[in-house]
Amino acid sequence: MISEGLKKQISVFLTFVIFIDFMGVATVVTLFPHLLLSANGMFSNAITEGNKLILMGIFLAIYPLGQFFGASALGKLSDYYGRKKILIITLVGTFVGFLGSAISVEISSAALLFVSRLLAGLSAGNVSVAQASLLDISTAETKSRYVSYGQMAMGSAYIVGPVIGAWLSQSTVVSWFNESTPFWFFSAILIVLLIITFTTYQETQMAPKREKINLLQGFQQIYQALGDKKLNKAFLVWLVFVSGWWLFESFMPTFLLQNFHFTTVQIGNLLAFNGALYAAFQYLIVQKVAKKMSPVTMARISIGIAGIAIISIGIAHNTFQLYMGMIAFVLTMGFSIPGIITHIANMAGDKDQGQAMGMVNSIQAFATVLVMLLGGYINSINSHLSVIAGGAVVILSWLIFIAYFSIKKMTNHALDITNTAI
Q1: CATH code assigned at 340
Q2: Residue 62: its H or E element
Q3: Lowest pLDDT segment from 64-73, 204-213, 215-224
Q4: 91 contacts 235 by C-beta, under 8 angstroms
Q5: Considering only CA atoms, which of 16, 134, 122, 128 is closest in space to residue 66?
Q6: Has residue 194 been placed in a domain?
Q7: Is residue 297 part of a domain?
Q8: Stretch 40-65: mean pLDDT
Q9: How many CB atoms lie within 10 A of CB 139?
Q10: Which of 73, 149, 220, 233 could be bridged to 404 by S-S, CB 3.0 to 4.6 A?
């Protein structure tokens, strides 16, 4: 039995793991437009701008492609072998991936960058493992709060990551800084995380599930998720929602570069602003509201507004309109993401939290791969289109959610479960 004091220590550590993972992602998204699209970038100048945009979509997609194959299986492997062992493996893989990315930028090798980002994606299961571990130590009363911790970590990562990435890449800050420096920085951070994991993290999975694991777990989990009569509707909402969210999120830096002529530092500052607002909103508002409002209500009132906010960003004519749209987007996503994830967690069995979170991450990775590949092509047609399309898809996910979930329907569902139990 894990004491309350130890639960607090574990939750802080796991939140930091999620924080570091998303900080690395935020840094890469910030760096890629200038690293890949500029005249002196890693792509040959013989390649047209439109083809560079398509290639950038492929390079962005390779990370979630690795995540798709890695996170799904790793989430379930952590149910099988325990959280600690799998967490250590994923952190080693992430370290090697960032180290390879640093070297690729130093020697200007697009091929090595591609491979290193794939490895980092394969190792991104540390997020699903950390989420499952947080759920291991949660109760019905604390589950929403622990899910919110992960969202706070993600928001905080988008405060620190873009700024660190932007400034560490600028030779005007320190003469020997360049676009490889952020990758060297994260490699060092990951070594420290590994040491902490070995020495302080305590296993939270007390009842291992001995089930067969295979490398195609991601496809199987998506099939199972969308075929599960209890969870398929919630997972369908998550699939559509994530598709719209990441179509916008992945190409927002490119949109800012092409339409507002933002520098890497300006892109980093805007992402940091979004992250600061998101984290503060999670801490000051969402955690308190989650105690009084059901996850279904949180999602029902926010998803549609988030989609409208994204569209407003796509048609913004000046930076004031841009920031107003960003604020609306961030605040509504503060309710949407934890609302949907907590709803899925509540519907899954207590012993299947690792698998459920693996499904969540598998679907997110699969959807992200598709929209990044498609988004590069869409962006080559019109730089506004990927943003507007992302907002429209988020609105579609809201309409599906409204069709399937309501307070009355969920109350009846809960009564059916109670009557069955009796």
Answers
A1: 1.20.1250.20
A2: helix 49-81
A3: 204-213
A4: no
A5: 122
A6: yes
A7: yes
A8: 85
A9: 9
A10: 233
User: Which H/E stretch holds residue 161?
Assistant: helix 143-168
- Confidence (pTM): 0.73
Domain that holds residue 119: 4-203+220-421
The single residue listed with the structure tokens 């694991």 is 213
- pLDDT at residue 417 tops 60: no
Residue 214 lies in a domain: no
Phi, psi of 173 (to 5 degrees): -80, -55
- What secondary structure letter does DSSP report for 207? S
Q: Which residue has the tokens 């919110």?
A: 148
Q: At which residue do the structure tokens 């924080």 appear? A: 19
Return the structure tokens found at 328: 């609306």
Closest CA to 332 of 375, 298, 381, 360: 298
Helix axes 217-227, 232-260, angle to 10 degrees: 120
Number of residues written out for the chain:
422
Provide the sign of the torsion angle of the four alpha carbons 335, 337, 339, 342, taken in this order: negative
Instruction: Answer whether residue 63 is part of any domain.
Output: yes
> Structurally, how many domains does the chain consist of?
1
Q: Six-digit token pair at 133?
A: 């571990």
Angstrom distance (rounded) from CA 304 to CA 316: 19
Tokens of 208: 């291992």
283, exposed or middle or buried, with CB in 10 Å at 0-12, 13-18, 19+? Answer: middle
